[in-house]
Amino acid sequence: MKRLSIAVALSAALALTACGTTEENDEAPAAAASGECADDTTATSTEPVELTDGFGRTVTLDAPAKRIAVLEWQQIEDALSLCVTPVAVADAAGYGAWNTAEKLPADGVVDVGTRGEPNHEALLGTNPDLIIVEAYSADDENIKALEKYDIPVLATKGADAADPIAQMRSTFELIAEATGRGERAEAVLEQFDTKLADAKEKVADADLPTTEFVYFDGWVDGGNISIRPFGQGALVSELGEALGLTNAWTGEVDPAYGLGQTDVEGFTKVGDATLLYTGTIDPEAEDVNERLAANPIWKKLPSVEAGNAHAFPAGIWTFGGPRSAEQVIDAYLGVLVD
């Protein structure tokens, strides 16, 4: 299960128990009808689908999937960006708290429990024609457990620090192919590319006092502040570098998400780099940002003394799809340029 932005335990705190079953039917739920989707005119393919998922598995569908069950937040967001409303999702409350890029409808979507251990009875009760999961290998236990129901399972790769922006796009395009929404995907990615290019020009024109930055999140563990820097290969950091900034965190990171581990003292190694951090607060845990504000080492950091430490707006999912990535870009501009 993917770790969360501030408190590792958030998924347990916010996860819903299964909401029961729904009557089986073959009608797909209405496409997301708010925002851009209300005016969307892009075509939906009706041709049979044969695709290769994130782990080389062949997934064959007689027609593009209409009733999709989605068990990870990035993929929920991606489906909604494609104007496809899932019939079932995992941890709807957590999604609503941490991902504001696309709003999940309050009605017509069944919550099937946690992302790591969904309630299979509730999931099957929604009569999905495709189940979309996030995994880390083709042997993932979640894939094996779901395949026994003879419902196609599309496994998307959790992350790839080698090129997180390309990985984000690839996952989005894969879901678009499975749902026949390729034309919509092209439009969304074109908007993302345009926003990124425009933002890069704004950063270049801003003549910033420093282009070095470190983005991080953290949590309070046993009274101690744990810090998770987003290093090389983290999506948020790579978006910053795509804007012309330089990630100042050079410590060891994991090969999937590009995430490191340190404490407040670790920031003494990054000089006067701008410090950026999540503004999303876990309502079930101690506010790490308040603890930082009272920490004597934090208060003496050059960037903090210079007023160059900033929270991103709340509700930006740092492991999201194109719409979350656009929110990240806007956040960089908001704290550095605007």
Q: Structural class of the helix and strand makeup?
A: alpha/beta
Q: How far is it from the N-terminal to the C-terminal residue, by CA? A: 36 Å
H-E order: HEEEHEHEHEHEHHEEHEEHHHEH
- What overall geometry do the principal axes of the alpha carbons give? globular
Strand order of the largest sheet: 5-4-3-6-7
Which runs of at least 5 residues are low in confidence (pLDDT < 50)?
A: 1-25
Strand content: 15-25%
Strand count, sense and barrel status of the largest sheet are: 5 strands, parallel
Mind telling me the C-alpha Rg? 20 Å
Q: What is the average of the pLDDT values?
A: 90
| Strand element count | 12
User: What's the helix count?
Assistant: 12
Relative helix content: 25-40%
Family: Belongs to the bacterial solute-binding protein 8 family.
Protein name: Siderophore ABC transporter substrate-binding protein CdtB
Domain Fe/B12 periplasmic-binding: 67-338
Signal peptide: 1-20
What is the topological layout?
Layout: H1 10-14, E1 49-52, E2 58-61, E3 68-70, H2 73-81, E4 88-89, H3 92-98, E5 110-111, H4 120-124, E6 130-135, H5 141-147, E7 153-157, H6 164-179, H7 182-205, E8 212-221, E9 224-230, H8 235-242, E10 246-247, E11 274-277, H9 288-294, H10 296-300, H11 302-305, E12 309-311, H12 322-336
Parallel strand pairs: 3-4, 3-6, 4-5, 6-7, 8-10, 8-11, 11-12
Antiparallel strand pairs: 1-2, 8-9
Helix pairs in contact: 6-7, 7-12, 8-12
